[in-house]
Amino acid sequence: MKKKVLFLCDKNNNWSFKYLEKFIEELKITFKNKFSFKISSDKDITEKFHITFLNNLTYKVDINNKNFGLVLLIHESDLPNNKGFAPLQWQFLENKKDIFFSLIKADNNLDNGDIILKQKFEFDSLDLYEDIRIKQFFFQKKLVHKFLKIYPNFKLKKQRGRSTYNRKRTFLDSKIDLNRTIKSQFNQLRIANNKKWPSFFTYNNKIFKIKLEKTSISKLVNLKVRNPNILDKKIIYDLYKNSLNKNKYFISSINLSTSYPFISKKNDTKIKIGYSHNTND
Questions:
Q1: How many CB atoms are closer than 10 A to CB 7?
Q2: Is-contact 7 55, C-beta < 8 A?
Q3: Can you point out the beta strands (E) in the chain?
């Protein structure tokens, strides 16, 4: 008989929903003869399950509810360090990139359960909020998959060492100090959620919101690329003369028709002219 697995979710912390549904379909194929799967946000569910994963919950559940079976959760830290709220964000603020994910048996005390699996994963120091969430779920998937593969042959290991705790973050934690450099506050900027808890600063008793996102020159200036025409002869010649044995971009400000040539690149014998319509703004 198949073992029934529940992923208990939180409507108020639903960032993972869009990834979870696809993951469940993958699990149904991989473990089609071993498990059945269900997603629910009803903590009072009456259906009985063998395994319940608490998926990024912001509220407490009765882990002794017999309908849940074995209750598990994943905490993104090297337990017993960084128990509590927002473990990823607090560790990024400490300039950490290699983060442990711990799969534990749920306990009545905060993040205090026995450890079943622990694995270290690497984040990039340039990851922004959405990048972090995508990787966070991907790494959670790996632990879930690994556990289901070994179930029921798993071992429990007590947490050892002194516990440290993270407080709950508030919107004030996203405040940027105008007297400090952007570089020194980049971690604070990149972990902010642009929609729910954006970075901001105050100046002359006014509040200004900061939105951080990755982009490129082409997107930044609405860059268009075309083949060169006869009017570009001088531009192309100058670029060729200045770019021999070099592989770089060049900036030009020569007026061409109604647009300005913005960037041109010599690529072997093929040359493209880039221009931006934003330069009149």
A1: 22
A2: yes
A3: 3-8, 35-40, 51-54, 70-75, 83-84, 98-105, 115-122, 165-166, 199-203, 206-210, 223-226, 250-251, 260-267, 270-276
**Mean pLDDT lowest among 9-18, 173-182, 213-222, 240-249:** 240-249
228 preceded by a cis bond (ω within 30 of 0): no
pTM above 0.85, yes or no: no
Using the structure block, give the residue that is written with the tokens 């934690």. Answer: 173
Residue 275 pairs with which residues in a beta bridge? 224, 261
**135: enclosing H helix or E strand:** helix 129-150
In the block, tokens 């020159």 appear at 217
Q: Are 129 and 190 a contacting pair, CB within 8 Å? A: yes
Spatial distance between the Cα atoms of 43 and 59, rounded to a whole number of angstroms? 10
